[in-house]
């Protein structure tokens, strides 16, 4: 009994240390080991919370091979805190703390912490709109035009979508906009530009996340295609150094064009990709900036789950 008690005390001490300093996967592994739960039981408990996560994903999380990123995954992490009898936000804080990139990179990009917090806010906003992640639509084509203003700010963007319904009765699309640090989403405006009209618009001030319903004047049948266009007027934050688009699902073609105000041109531009917000950036490619048209662009013939973006340097 003494050896068993010592082992339990050591496991508890290891868990407490991991919860204080991380990293996330070590803390998760220690918590599961301390409670003595096989991954199949952990998965069963998660289903009782209405969260679906595969045993393979749980294994990857505790090995550090992958990190929870999507809203559904972050819901699972919060449920794990209850299932494993951990303090509230203890695992979520370790995910946020994982941003250990060099200062130069942090200033040029949204941190993993900010993206984790934004994912949580987005999940709540989508729940208020009773909207699933894909909304019953598959994207065939998405052309996005981003405008950078004279103060180097994200002035706004226009998006044209071609979608196909994979469920019956789809009559709306929920647009998501994540402003730059310091933005005020309550001062932004959403405009329905073609084949749609604006419905409810919600936002979360601290993270700069805004969601908006774009209502169709028809109900799509499964297999129907639809084309619509909308815009978001922003201009509420400081200097912008990149624009990123996240994709939760593989899909069709994506084209991103960034246009800069006259006499406000960066010295260089590049494209980049990421498998997730926690993953290192890859696929860097210098982009030629047109002085005449003041723009750069990238085209992804078929997007994959992850992040695609254009970054630029002002000096």
What does this structure look like?
This protein is α+β, with helices and mostly antiparallel strands and 315 residues long. It has 2 domains: 97 residues, 434 Repressor (Amino-terminal Domain) (Orthogonal Bundle), CATH 1.10.260; 179 residues, Sandwich (Immunoglobulin-like), CATH 2.60.40. It has 8 helices and 13 strands. The strands form 3 sheets. The chain has a 6-stranded mixed β-sheet, with no helix packed on it. It is globular, with a radius of gyration of 22 Å.
Quick structural gist:
With 315 residues, the protein is α+β, with helices and mostly antiparallel strands. It has helices at 2-21, 24-35, 39-48, 55-63, 71-83, 90-97, 103-108, 112-128, and strands at 137-148, 154-165, 170-178, 189-194, 197-204, 209-220, 225-233, 242-247, 253-260, 268-274, 282-287, 295-300, 306-313.
